[in-house]
Amino acid sequence: MKPRKPWSPSRHWSLAQHRSRRTFEAWPAAVRGMVWMVVAGLLFSFLNTIARELTLQLDVYQSQFLRYLFGLLFMLPWVWRDGWRAYMPVNIVGQFWRGGVHTLGLVLWFTALPKIPLADITAIGFTGPIFIMIGAAWFLGEPMRRDRWIAAIIGFAGVLVVVLPKMSGEGGWFNLVMLASSPVFAASFLITKALTRYEKAGVIVLWQALTVSVLSLPMALPNWQAPTLMQWIGFAATGVLGTLAHYCLTRAFALADISATQSLRFLDLVWASILGWLVFGDVPSQWTWAGALVILGATVWIARREGRRKVVVPD
Length: 315
Known about the structure:
The protein is mainly alpha-helical. The chain has 13 helices and no strands.
């Protein structure tokens, strides 16, 4: 009889990770893509909460630059470990195109961010999945499946249930600026989906942080203010959260059709409501709970539908 190996916390943790990874990889590719999308939405919700507070204190373009600069710094240890050659893109022109388009969307988004109430931002931002689904059909050739459109429409209806009673109509033309950012971000995500066909997720996220930082620096310098210690910590947090969120988003796009994941974007409203409750003490209204149930219902329904489809995923 072989003697039992002594219990080790690190070995136990490693075995648990291995088993969890094997269980997760056994799920259908579309469902795994949806899980990555849900995690990305949760991280983006934390990020947006911190970013909005920072833009109320500092210049919006300085905030944009520092958010992506810290995202780039967060990834440098992995670049140092693996070597810079591991992060050289197959299509460097595509990376700069993606970075330029995303920077344009960020300029519009950050310009309007401190000028519009949170409920209005939420409502306008959720037009993005509609633009993405249309673009996925036109430019990527993804099938315009009826159930995906149904789930997106039901999810958007759930969002309207929550935000319409809170719409203030404030913000003036900044509402149009925020709205203009939605199709630009949709174009950025569609380019990301195209890049996932031959680029690794880490490469895409690193080059996004690099290109956006470089392109944002000239706009940040004219009104530069020295951040306080807490603001530096806040930007470091946004860099970490943003990098992890974009990594999860890229993994989701690599595993599933981009149009299949868009109804899950409406779950962000649920996370935002929970964060508002925990951080700011905003008690969710009955409309919030009703809208959340509609969104969750649409999400579970489309996840079950997509899980039954066979999807061929590149290795």
